[in-house]
Protein backbone atom coordinates (compact mmCIF):
# COMPACT_ATOMS: atom_id res chain seq x y z
CA UNK A 1 0.00 0.00 0.00
CA UNK A 2 2.96 2.22 0.61
CA UNK A 3 4.46 1.49 -2.79
CA UNK A 4 2.80 4.16 -4.94
CA UNK A 5 3.62 6.81 -2.44
CA UNK A 6 7.18 5.46 -2.25
CA UNK A 7 7.41 5.67 -6.04
CA UNK A 8 6.16 9.18 -6.10
CA UNK A 9 8.65 10.17 -3.39
CA UNK A 10 11.42 8.54 -5.29
CA UNK A 11 10.37 10.25 -8.50
CA UNK A 12 10.50 13.62 -6.78
CA UNK A 13 13.77 12.69 -5.15
CA UNK A 14 15.08 11.71 -8.55
CA UNK A 15 13.92 14.89 -10.15
CA UNK A 16 15.55 16.90 -7.41
CA UNK A 17 18.71 14.77 -7.36
CA UNK A 18 19.16 14.33 -11.10
CA UNK A 19 18.57 17.51 -13.00
CA UNK A 20 21.28 16.94 -15.52
CA UNK A 21 21.77 13.30 -16.34
CA UNK A 22 24.72 14.27 -18.50
CA UNK A 23 26.82 15.63 -15.68
CA UNK A 24 26.40 13.95 -12.34
CA UNK A 25 29.38 15.70 -10.76
CA UNK A 26 28.13 19.09 -11.83
CA UNK A 27 24.78 18.09 -10.56
CA UNK A 28 26.34 17.51 -7.16
CA UNK A 29 27.95 20.94 -7.21
CA UNK A 30 25.04 22.89 -8.73
CA UNK A 31 21.61 23.15 -7.20
CA UNK A 32 19.07 21.18 -9.16
CA UNK A 33 16.58 22.88 -11.45
CA UNK A 34 13.78 22.15 -9.05
CA UNK A 35 15.89 23.32 -6.17
CA UNK A 36 16.76 26.46 -8.10
CA UNK A 37 13.11 27.06 -8.88
CA UNK A 38 12.16 26.31 -5.29
CA UNK A 39 14.94 28.53 -3.93
CA UNK A 40 14.07 31.49 -6.14
CA UNK A 41 10.40 31.07 -5.15
CA UNK A 42 11.46 30.84 -1.58
CA UNK A 43 13.57 33.96 -1.95
CA UNK A 44 10.66 35.83 -3.56
CA UNK A 45 8.37 34.65 -0.77
CA UNK A 46 10.91 35.58 1.87
CA UNK A 47 11.36 39.01 0.34
CA UNK A 48 7.59 39.47 0.20
CA UNK A 49 7.20 38.31 3.80
CA UNK A 50 10.05 40.60 4.81
CA UNK A 51 8.46 43.60 3.10
CA UNK A 52 5.05 42.83 4.61
CA UNK A 53 6.61 42.40 8.05
CA UNK A 54 8.50 45.65 7.58
CA UNK A 55 5.31 47.49 6.62
CA UNK A 56 3.43 45.96 9.57
CA UNK A 57 6.27 46.91 11.91
CA UNK A 58 6.34 50.47 10.59
CA UNK A 59 2.56 50.85 10.81
CA UNK A 60 2.52 49.34 14.32
CA UNK A 61 5.34 51.59 15.49
CA UNK A 62 3.67 54.67 14.01
CA UNK A 63 0.34 53.69 15.60
CA UNK A 64 2.00 53.09 18.95
CA UNK A 65 3.71 56.49 18.80
CA UNK A 66 0.48 58.21 17.76
CA UNK A 67 -1.48 56.44 20.49
CA UNK A 68 1.11 57.29 23.12
CA UNK A 69 1.07 60.90 21.94
CA UNK A 70 -2.70 61.13 22.21
CA UNK A 71 -2.77 59.33 25.51
CA UNK A 72 -0.07 61.22 27.32
CA UNK A 73 0.47 64.40 25.45
CA UNK A 74 -2.65 65.13 23.40
CA UNK A 75 -4.44 68.34 24.31
CA UNK A 76 -7.89 66.94 23.63
CA UNK A 77 -7.42 63.68 25.37
CA UNK A 78 -9.75 63.34 28.28
CA UNK A 79 -8.16 60.03 29.31
CA UNK A 80 -5.05 59.04 31.17
CA UNK A 81 -2.14 61.40 31.09
CA UNK A 82 1.22 61.66 32.73
CA UNK A 83 0.72 65.27 33.72
CA UNK A 84 0.02 65.69 37.41
CA UNK A 85 -1.04 68.64 39.54
CA UNK A 86 1.93 70.64 40.77
CA UNK A 87 1.97 70.58 44.58
CA UNK A 88 1.21 74.03 45.99
CA UNK A 89 1.73 75.08 49.59
CA UNK A 90 -1.26 77.45 49.82
CA UNK A 91 -3.65 76.81 46.94
CA UNK A 92 -5.48 79.99 45.94
CA UNK A 93 -8.44 80.43 43.61
CA UNK A 94 -9.53 83.62 41.83
CA UNK A 95 -13.06 83.16 40.47
CA UNK A 96 -13.68 85.72 37.72
CA UNK A 97 -17.14 86.28 36.28
CA UNK A 98 -17.77 88.17 33.08
CA UNK A 99 -21.54 88.68 33.09
CA UNK A 100 -23.36 87.51 29.97
CA UNK A 101 -20.19 86.22 28.28
CA UNK A 102 -21.89 84.02 25.71
CA UNK A 103 -19.80 81.05 24.63
CA UNK A 104 -18.15 81.99 21.33
CA UNK A 105 -17.71 85.69 22.11
CA UNK A 106 -14.01 84.93 22.54
CA UNK A 107 -13.80 84.26 18.80
CA UNK A 108 -15.24 87.66 17.83
CA UNK A 109 -11.98 89.53 18.17
CA UNK A 110 -8.37 89.26 19.26
CA UNK A 111 -8.31 88.04 22.88
CA UNK A 112 -4.63 87.36 23.54
CA UNK A 113 -5.03 87.10 27.29
CA UNK A 114 -8.04 84.80 27.28
CA UNK A 115 -6.24 82.77 24.60
CA UNK A 116 -3.23 82.49 26.87
CA UNK A 117 -5.36 81.07 29.66
CA UNK A 118 -6.99 78.66 27.21
CA UNK A 119 -3.70 77.55 25.67
CA UNK A 120 -2.18 76.85 29.06
CA UNK A 121 -5.31 75.69 30.81
CA UNK A 122 -8.46 73.62 30.55
CA UNK A 123 -11.50 74.84 28.65
CA UNK A 124 -15.11 73.64 28.35
CA UNK A 125 -14.88 73.02 24.62
CA UNK A 126 -18.49 73.87 23.83
CA UNK A 127 -19.04 76.16 26.80
CA UNK A 128 -20.44 75.82 30.32
CA UNK A 129 -24.15 75.16 30.82
CA UNK A 130 -26.04 77.55 33.10
CA UNK A 131 -28.88 76.54 35.39
CA UNK A 132 -32.50 77.35 34.56
CA UNK A 133 -33.64 80.10 34.54
CA UNK A 134 -30.56 81.42 32.73
CA UNK A 135 -30.59 84.65 34.74
CA UNK A 136 -27.78 86.46 36.56
CA UNK A 137 -28.61 85.97 40.23
CA UNK A 138 -29.76 82.33 40.10
CA UNK A 139 -26.63 81.39 38.13
CA UNK A 140 -24.04 83.31 40.10
CA UNK A 141 -25.40 81.79 43.29
CA UNK A 142 -25.44 78.28 41.76
CA UNK A 143 -21.77 78.68 40.82
CA UNK A 144 -20.77 79.41 44.43
CA UNK A 145 -23.14 76.95 46.17
CA UNK A 146 -23.29 74.01 43.75
CA UNK A 147 -27.07 74.11 44.18
CA UNK A 148 -29.92 74.45 41.73
CA UNK A 149 -32.10 77.55 42.26
CA UNK A 150 -34.90 75.50 43.80
CA UNK A 151 -32.38 74.48 46.49
CA UNK A 152 -30.53 77.77 47.03
CA UNK A 153 -33.71 79.83 46.92
CA UNK A 154 -32.74 82.49 44.38
CA UNK A 155 -35.26 81.31 41.79
CA UNK A 156 -35.15 84.53 39.78
CA UNK A 157 -33.59 88.00 39.83
CA UNK A 158 -36.66 89.22 41.68
CA UNK A 159 -39.82 87.57 42.96
CA UNK A 160 -42.56 88.03 45.53
CA UNK A 161 -42.79 85.44 48.27
CA UNK A 162 -45.19 85.50 51.19
CA UNK A 163 -45.61 89.12 52.20
CA UNK A 164 -42.16 90.09 51.02
CA UNK A 165 -40.33 90.54 47.73
CA UNK A 166 -36.82 89.50 46.82
CA UNK A 167 -34.87 92.03 44.75
CA UNK A 168 -31.26 92.18 43.64
CA UNK A 169 -30.64 94.44 46.63
CA UNK A 170 -31.99 92.00 49.22
CA UNK A 171 -29.23 90.96 51.59
CA UNK A 172 -31.30 89.32 54.32
CA UNK A 173 -29.99 85.80 55.01
CA UNK A 174 -33.53 84.35 54.84
CA UNK A 175 -33.48 84.54 51.04
CA UNK A 176 -30.04 83.02 50.48
CA UNK A 177 -30.08 79.31 51.28
CA UNK A 178 -27.20 76.86 50.97
CA UNK A 179 -23.56 77.50 51.76
CA UNK A 180 -21.62 79.76 49.39
CA UNK A 181 -17.90 79.23 48.91
CA UNK A 182 -16.86 82.24 50.99
CA UNK A 183 -18.75 80.72 53.95
CA UNK A 184 -17.20 77.29 53.32
CA UNK A 185 -13.72 78.80 53.16
CA UNK A 186 -14.07 80.74 56.41
CA UNK A 187 -15.65 77.71 58.07
CA UNK A 188 -12.45 75.84 57.22
CA UNK A 189 -10.39 78.49 59.04
CA UNK A 190 -9.22 80.24 55.84
CA UNK A 191 -9.88 83.70 54.43
CA UNK A 192 -12.06 84.66 51.49
CA UNK A 193 -12.47 87.95 49.63
CA UNK A 194 -15.31 89.03 47.36
CA UNK A 195 -15.05 91.85 44.86
CA UNK A 196 -18.76 91.69 44.07
CA UNK A 197 -20.84 88.54 43.65
CA UNK A 198 -24.56 88.05 44.18
CA UNK A 199 -25.03 86.95 47.78
CA UNK A 200 -21.57 87.95 48.97
CA UNK A 201 -22.89 90.81 51.15
CA UNK A 202 -25.17 88.46 53.07
CA UNK A 203 -24.01 87.49 56.55
CA UNK A 204 -24.03 83.72 56.76
CA UNK A 205 -22.34 81.45 59.30
CA UNK A 206 -18.76 82.59 59.84
CA UNK A 207 -18.98 84.99 56.92
CA UNK A 208 -19.86 88.49 58.02
CA UNK A 209 -18.70 90.31 54.88
CA UNK A 210 -15.61 91.95 56.45
CA UNK A 211 -15.21 95.48 54.97
CA UNK A 212 -11.56 94.96 54.01
CA UNK A 213 -12.28 91.79 52.04
CA UNK A 214 -15.93 92.12 50.98
CA UNK A 215 -16.86 94.97 48.67
CA UNK A 216 -20.41 96.31 48.66
CA UNK A 217 -21.78 96.40 45.15
CA UNK A 218 -21.09 99.60 43.27
CA UNK A 219 -21.24 99.30 39.51
CA UNK A 220 -19.45 102.63 39.04
CA UNK A 221 -16.11 101.28 40.30
CA UNK A 222 -13.77 100.96 37.29
CA UNK A 223 -12.81 97.43 36.31
CA UNK A 224 -9.11 98.31 36.69
CA UNK A 225 -9.63 99.21 40.33
CA UNK A 226 -11.35 95.89 40.97
CA UNK A 227 -8.46 93.96 39.42
CA UNK A 228 -5.84 96.00 41.29
CA UNK A 229 -7.60 95.44 44.62
CA UNK A 230 -7.63 91.68 44.09
CA UNK A 231 -3.93 91.85 43.18
CA UNK A 232 -3.20 93.80 46.37
CA UNK A 233 -4.38 90.84 48.46
CA UNK A 234 -1.22 89.03 47.33
CA UNK A 235 0.85 91.61 49.24
CA UNK A 236 -0.69 90.49 52.54
CA UNK A 237 1.24 88.10 54.82
CA UNK A 238 0.37 84.51 53.91
CA UNK A 239 -1.62 84.06 57.13
CA UNK A 240 -3.90 86.99 56.20
CA UNK A 241 -4.13 86.31 52.49
CA UNK A 242 -7.48 85.12 51.16
CA UNK A 243 -7.33 81.73 49.44
CA UNK A 244 -10.56 82.35 47.56
CA UNK A 245 -11.36 85.59 45.77
CA UNK A 246 -14.18 86.64 43.47
CA UNK A 247 -13.94 89.29 40.79
CA UNK A 248 -16.99 90.44 38.86
CA UNK A 249 -17.45 92.44 35.65
CA UNK A 250 -20.89 93.56 34.43
CA UNK A 251 -19.78 93.39 30.80
CA UNK A 252 -20.61 92.21 28.18
CA UNK A 253 -24.11 91.58 29.61
CA UNK A 254 -24.72 95.29 29.84
CA UNK A 255 -24.08 95.78 26.10
CA UNK A 256 -25.77 92.50 25.16
CA UNK A 257 -29.14 93.64 26.51
CA UNK A 258 -28.85 96.93 24.71
CA UNK A 259 -27.71 95.84 21.26
CA UNK A 260 -27.90 92.04 21.09
CA UNK A 261 -24.99 89.62 20.73
CA UNK A 262 -23.84 90.57 17.23
CA UNK A 263 -23.18 94.29 17.51
CA UNK A 264 -19.68 95.82 17.32
CA UNK A 265 -20.30 97.15 20.82
CA UNK A 266 -20.06 93.56 22.07
CA UNK A 267 -16.72 93.15 20.32
CA UNK A 268 -15.42 96.23 22.14
CA UNK A 269 -16.70 94.90 25.46
CA UNK A 270 -14.93 91.57 24.86
CA UNK A 271 -11.69 93.42 24.14
CA UNK A 272 -12.07 95.27 27.43
CA UNK A 273 -12.68 92.05 29.37
CA UNK A 274 -9.62 90.55 27.70
CA UNK A 275 -7.57 93.59 28.76
CA UNK A 276 -8.75 93.08 32.34
CA UNK A 277 -7.70 89.44 32.22
CA UNK A 278 -4.33 90.67 30.92
CA UNK A 279 -4.08 93.14 33.79
CA UNK A 280 -4.76 90.32 36.24
CA UNK A 281 -2.26 87.93 34.62
CA UNK A 282 0.49 90.54 34.39
CA UNK A 283 -0.12 91.70 37.96
CA UNK A 284 0.18 88.13 39.22
CA UNK A 285 3.32 87.66 37.13
CA UNK A 286 4.92 90.77 38.63
CA UNK A 287 4.25 89.30 42.05
CA UNK A 288 5.76 86.00 40.93
CA UNK A 289 2.62 83.98 41.68
CA UNK A 290 0.86 83.62 38.33
CA UNK A 291 1.77 79.96 37.83
CA UNK A 292 0.83 79.08 41.41
CA UNK A 293 -2.59 80.75 41.49
CA UNK A 294 -5.67 79.10 40.02
CA UNK A 295 -7.81 81.33 37.82
CA UNK A 296 -11.33 80.21 36.99
CA UNK A 297 -12.81 82.41 34.28
CA UNK A 298 -16.56 81.93 33.97
CA UNK A 299 -19.74 83.64 32.86
CA UNK A 300 -23.24 83.25 34.20
CA UNK A 301 -25.24 82.78 30.96
CA UNK A 302 -25.25 83.64 27.27
CA UNK A 303 -27.33 86.07 25.22
CA UNK A 304 -29.63 85.96 22.20
CA UNK A 305 -30.88 88.74 19.92
CA UNK A 306 -34.53 89.75 20.17
CA UNK A 307 -34.87 92.08 17.21
CA UNK A 308 -37.18 90.03 15.04
CA UNK A 309 -40.57 90.98 16.47
CA UNK A 310 -41.01 87.46 17.84
CA UNK A 311 -43.71 88.40 20.31
CA UNK A 312 -46.52 86.59 22.10
CA UNK A 313 -49.24 88.68 23.77
CA UNK A 314 -51.15 87.32 26.76
CA UNK A 315 -54.16 89.50 25.85
CA UNK A 316 -54.58 87.32 22.74
CA UNK A 317 -55.60 84.48 25.09
CA UNK A 318 -58.69 86.41 26.27
CA UNK A 319 -61.19 84.24 24.35
CA UNK A 320 -59.98 81.26 26.41
CA UNK A 321 -58.83 82.92 29.66
CA UNK A 322 -58.07 86.41 30.92
CA UNK A 323 -54.59 86.60 32.46
CA UNK A 324 -54.53 89.88 34.40
CA UNK A 325 -51.22 91.67 34.79
CA UNK A 326 -51.19 91.15 38.56
CA UNK A 327 -51.13 87.35 38.17
CA UNK A 328 -47.88 87.57 36.28
CA UNK A 329 -44.66 87.62 38.32
CA UNK A 330 -42.40 87.84 35.30
CA UNK A 331 -43.01 87.83 31.56
CA UNK A 332 -39.85 87.16 29.64
CA UNK A 333 -37.82 85.06 29.07
CA UNK A 334 -39.16 83.35 32.18
CA UNK A 335 -42.95 83.48 32.24
CA UNK A 336 -44.20 82.86 35.76
CA UNK A 337 -47.81 83.16 36.85
CA UNK A 338 -49.39 82.90 40.27
CA UNK A 339 -53.20 83.00 40.04
CA UNK A 340 -54.98 84.19 43.20
CA UNK A 341 -56.34 81.74 45.77
CA UNK A 342 -59.53 80.13 44.59
CA UNK A 343 -58.42 79.86 40.98
CA UNK A 344 -57.10 76.48 40.01
CA UNK A 345 -53.64 76.67 38.38
CA UNK A 346 -54.31 73.48 36.44
CA UNK A 347 -57.46 75.01 34.91
CA UNK A 348 -55.51 78.11 33.97
CA UNK A 349 -52.85 75.94 32.31
CA UNK A 350 -55.48 73.91 30.45
CA UNK A 351 -57.17 77.03 29.06
CA UNK A 352 -53.90 78.69 28.15
CA UNK A 353 -52.81 75.55 26.30
CA UNK A 354 -56.13 75.44 24.46
CA UNK A 355 -55.64 79.01 23.26
CA UNK A 356 -51.96 78.64 22.43
CA UNK A 357 -52.57 75.53 20.32
CA UNK A 358 -55.66 76.92 18.54
CA UNK A 359 -53.66 78.52 15.76
CA UNK A 360 -55.44 81.79 16.50
CA UNK A 361 -52.89 83.24 18.92
CA UNK A 362 -49.97 84.86 17.15
CA UNK A 363 -46.79 82.80 17.79
CA UNK A 364 -48.78 80.67 20.25
CA UNK A 365 -46.83 77.55 19.33
CA UNK A 366 -43.66 79.15 20.72
CA UNK A 367 -44.91 79.25 24.30
CA UNK A 368 -45.34 76.09 26.37
CA UNK A 369 -47.02 76.44 29.75
CA UNK A 370 -46.65 73.98 32.60
CA UNK A 371 -47.70 73.42 36.15
CA UNK A 372 -44.28 73.71 37.79
CA UNK A 373 -44.39 70.09 38.96
CA UNK A 374 -44.79 69.00 35.32
CA UNK A 375 -41.76 70.91 34.01
CA UNK A 376 -39.06 68.69 32.50
CA UNK A 377 -36.99 67.17 35.32
CA UNK A 378 -33.75 68.34 33.68
CA UNK A 379 -34.66 71.96 34.56
CA UNK A 380 -34.70 71.23 38.32
CA UNK A 381 -37.30 73.94 38.71
CA UNK A 382 -40.20 72.40 40.60
CA UNK A 383 -39.49 71.76 44.24
CA UNK A 384 -39.61 75.18 45.86
CA UNK A 385 -42.53 77.14 47.30
CA UNK A 386 -40.90 80.25 45.89
CA UNK A 387 -41.51 79.08 42.32
CA UNK A 388 -45.01 80.13 41.27
CA UNK A 389 -47.41 77.35 40.23
CA UNK A 390 -47.37 78.14 36.49
CA UNK A 391 -44.20 78.45 34.45
CA UNK A 392 -43.96 79.14 30.73
CA UNK A 393 -41.06 78.04 28.56
CA UNK A 394 -40.54 80.45 25.70
CA UNK A 395 -38.86 79.55 22.43
CA UNK A 396 -35.41 81.05 22.00
CA UNK A 397 -35.46 84.77 21.09
CA UNK A 398 -39.25 85.09 21.59
CA UNK A 399 -40.76 87.40 24.18
CA UNK A 400 -44.05 87.36 26.06
CA UNK A 401 -45.82 90.62 26.77
CA UNK A 402 -49.16 91.55 28.25
CA UNK A 403 -50.47 93.46 25.26
CA UNK A 404 -49.51 94.97 21.95
CA UNK A 405 -47.49 98.14 22.24
CA UNK A 406 -45.51 100.40 19.99
CA UNK A 407 -42.39 99.84 22.07
CA UNK A 408 -39.26 99.22 20.01
CA UNK A 409 -38.30 95.60 20.55
CA UNK A 410 -34.68 95.12 19.68
CA UNK A 411 -31.79 94.08 21.86
CA UNK A 412 -30.70 90.93 23.63
CA UNK A 413 -32.10 88.64 26.32
CA UNK A 414 -31.28 85.61 28.43
CA UNK A 415 -33.25 83.54 30.90
CA UNK A 416 -34.46 80.93 28.40
CA UNK A 417 -34.24 77.14 28.64
CA UNK A 418 -30.64 76.21 29.45
CA UNK A 419 -30.75 73.68 26.63
CA UNK A 420 -30.33 76.50 24.08
CA UNK A 421 -26.74 76.78 22.91
CA UNK A 422 -27.02 80.59 22.92
CA UNK A 423 -27.42 80.47 26.71
CA UNK A 424 -24.04 78.79 27.23
CA UNK A 425 -21.13 80.68 28.68
CA UNK A 426 -17.40 80.19 29.04
CA UNK A 427 -15.28 78.18 31.41
CA UNK A 428 -11.49 78.29 31.53
CA UNK A 429 -9.45 76.85 34.40
CA UNK A 430 -5.78 77.83 34.61
CA UNK A 431 -3.38 76.86 37.35
CA UNK A 432 -1.32 74.07 38.88
CA UNK A 433 -4.29 71.67 38.96
CA UNK A 434 -5.35 72.12 35.32
CA UNK A 435 -3.84 70.38 32.31
CA UNK A 436 -2.51 72.63 29.58
CA UNK A 437 -4.40 72.96 26.30
CA UNK A 438 -7.05 70.56 27.44
CA UNK A 439 -10.65 70.63 26.24
CA UNK A 440 -13.36 69.03 28.34
CA UNK A 441 -17.01 68.40 27.46
CA UNK A 442 -19.61 70.96 28.51
CA UNK A 443 -20.79 70.71 32.10
CA UNK A 444 -23.29 72.49 34.31
CA UNK A 445 -22.10 75.27 36.58
CA UNK A 446 -23.27 73.50 39.76
CA UNK A 447 -20.13 71.36 39.32
CA UNK A 448 -17.84 74.26 40.18
CA UNK A 449 -18.42 74.24 43.94
CA UNK A 450 -16.83 70.78 44.38
CA UNK A 451 -14.09 71.77 41.95
CA UNK A 452 -13.09 74.75 44.11
CA UNK A 453 -13.22 72.84 47.40
CA UNK A 454 -11.06 70.12 45.79
CA UNK A 455 -8.45 72.66 44.66
CA UNK A 456 -8.42 74.29 48.10
CA UNK A 457 -8.45 70.87 49.78
CA UNK A 458 -11.26 71.86 52.11
CA UNK A 459 -14.44 70.19 53.26
CA UNK A 460 -17.47 71.40 51.32
CA UNK A 461 -21.18 71.38 52.09
CA UNK A 462 -23.66 68.95 50.49
CA UNK A 463 -24.69 70.18 47.06
CA UNK A 464 -26.15 69.19 43.68
CA UNK A 465 -22.75 68.78 41.99
CA UNK A 466 -21.38 65.34 41.13
CA UNK A 467 -18.85 64.25 43.79
CA UNK A 468 -16.61 62.66 41.15
CA UNK A 469 -16.68 65.67 38.80
CA UNK A 470 -13.43 67.29 40.05
CA UNK A 471 -11.51 64.13 39.12
CA UNK A 472 -12.67 64.55 35.52
CA UNK A 473 -11.44 68.12 35.17
CA UNK A 474 -8.50 68.46 37.57
CA UNK A 475 -5.13 66.81 37.19
CA UNK A 476 -4.36 63.72 39.23
CA UNK A 477 -2.50 64.66 42.37
CA UNK A 478 -4.73 67.62 43.24
CA UNK A 479 -5.78 65.83 46.41
CA UNK A 480 -2.41 64.37 47.48
ZN1 LIG B 1 -25.92 87.94 33.98
TrEMBL record:
Keyword Transmembrane helix carried by entry: yes
Residue ranges crossing the lipid bilayer per the database entry: 47-72
GO molecular function term, any single one: hydrolase activity
Gene3D superfamilies: 3.30.1360.180, Alkaline Phosphatase, subunit A
Keywords annotated in UniProt: Membrane, Transmembrane, Transmembrane helix
Cited CDD domains: Enpp
Protein name listed in UniProt: Sulfatase N-terminal domain-containing protein
Amino acid sequence: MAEPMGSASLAIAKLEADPDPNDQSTALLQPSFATRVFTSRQRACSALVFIVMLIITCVSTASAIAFAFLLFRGPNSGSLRLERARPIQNPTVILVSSDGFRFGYQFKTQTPNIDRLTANGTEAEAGMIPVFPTLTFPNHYSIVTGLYPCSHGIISNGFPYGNDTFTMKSHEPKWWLGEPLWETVTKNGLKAATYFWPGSEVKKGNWDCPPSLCKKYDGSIPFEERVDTVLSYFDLPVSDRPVFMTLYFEDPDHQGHKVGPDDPEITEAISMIDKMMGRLIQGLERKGVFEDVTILMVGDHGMVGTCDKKLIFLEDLAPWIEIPHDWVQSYSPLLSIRPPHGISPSEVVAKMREGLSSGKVKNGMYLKVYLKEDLPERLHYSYSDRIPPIVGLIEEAYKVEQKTSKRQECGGAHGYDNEFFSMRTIFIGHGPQFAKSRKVPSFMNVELYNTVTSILKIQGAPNNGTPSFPSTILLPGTWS
